[in-house]
């Protein structure tokens, strides 16, 4: 009888230990969470100039967090997305002296499974200085985290360019940015259109000189296994 009781107590203790351990990280739960619980400090992962920048916040690590566009001069702070923008591996150059046009490409975390049809990855763009953003398809890929490393996105005062490295050169597409127009609404006004096989403008840089997202992987939350709700 004692042996049976001891066995039952031991089973309950082991079950309690198993239940008290951290739950495995599940991407679907992370994506659905209303507010990420992580206490990690904000990091500036991309800086346009001294007052405009993108921050990664409430992140589990450099690949899983929330991103925001910030403009301290105009007091603009706009939520951009989760586990997407921080994973872009290519180059981003924002060289618009008017400060109206902002384009930020996205991606997907490492080991993200796109399935047998691949993933449609978008970029977001703003023509009002980051107050609002719309989206436009960027690439179709089976491994976005890896494939985005082949791309350069350049933003000017009237367009954005997408260049994909091909051999010793690059294939470039030019997308006009027109006030009041959103991609997917029909024809671009003013007789403008998407151009293919154009040249990428040279000698253009972000005011900060930064061309790639950067995240300090040594900075982690103290609660990486906090429950996602």
What does this structure look like?
The chain has a domain at 42-196. It is mainly β. The protein contains 3 helices and 12 strands. A hairpin with a 3-residue loop joins strand 9 (151-155) and strand 10 (159-166). 13% of the residues lie in helices and 34% in strands.
Topology diagram in text:
Layout: H1 2-20, H2 27-32, E1 43-47, E2 52-61, E3 64-71, E4 76-82, E5 91-94, E6 102-105, E7 119-126, E8 134-141, H3 144-147, E9 151-155, E10 159-166, E11 169-176, E12 195-196
Parallel strand pairs: 5-9
Antiparallel strand pairs: 1-2, 2-3, 3-4, 6-7, 7-8, 9-10, 10-11, 11-12
> What is the strand tally?
12
- What fraction, in percent, of the residue positions are helical? 10-25%
- Structural class estimated from helices and strands: mainly beta
User: What would the principal axes of the Cα set say about the shape?
Assistant: globular
- Tally of alpha and pi helices: 3
Radius of gyration (CA) equals 22 Å
* Mean residue pLDDT: 92
Largest sheet composition: 5 strands, mixed
| Secondary-structure element series | HHEEEEEEEEHEEEE
As a percent range, the share of strand residues is 25-35%
Strands side by side in the biggest sheet: 5-9-10-11-12
Q: For the terminal residues, how far apart are their CA atoms?
A: 44 Å
Unreliable runs = 1-14
Which short descriptors sum up this protein?
disordered N terminus; 229 residues; 4-stranded antiparallel beta sheet; mainly beta
Entry summary:
With 229 residues, this protein is mainly beta. The protein has three helices and twelve strands.
């Amino acid at each position: 009888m004692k042996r049976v009781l001891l066995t039952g107590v031991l089973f309950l203790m082991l079950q309690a230990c198993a239940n008290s351990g951290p739950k495995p990280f599940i991407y679907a739960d992370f994506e659905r969470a209303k507010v990420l619980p992580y206490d990690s400090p904000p990091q500036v992962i991309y800086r346009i100039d001294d007052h405009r920048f993108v921050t990664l916040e409430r992140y589990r690590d450099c690949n899983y967090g929330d991103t925001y566009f910030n403009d301290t001069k105009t007091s603009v702070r706009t939520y951009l997305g989760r586990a997407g923008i921080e994973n872009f591996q290519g180059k981003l150059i924002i060289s618009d002296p008017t400060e109206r046009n902002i384009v930020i490409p996205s991606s997907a975390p490492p080991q993200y499974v796109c399935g047998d049809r691949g993933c449609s990855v978008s970029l977001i763009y703003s023509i009002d200085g980051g107050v609002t953003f719309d989206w436009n398809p960027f690439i179709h890929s089976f491994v976005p985290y890896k494939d985005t490393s082949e791309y350069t996105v350049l933003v000017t005062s009237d367009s954005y360019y997408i260049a994909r490295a091909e051999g010793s050169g690059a294939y470039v597409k030019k997308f006009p940015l027109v006030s009041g127009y959103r991609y997917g609404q029909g024809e671009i006004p003013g007789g403008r259109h998407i151009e293919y096989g154009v040249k990428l403008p040279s000698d253009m840089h972000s005011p900060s000189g930064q061309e790639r997202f950067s995240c300090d992987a040594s900075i982690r939350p103290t609660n990486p296994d906090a429950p996602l709700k």
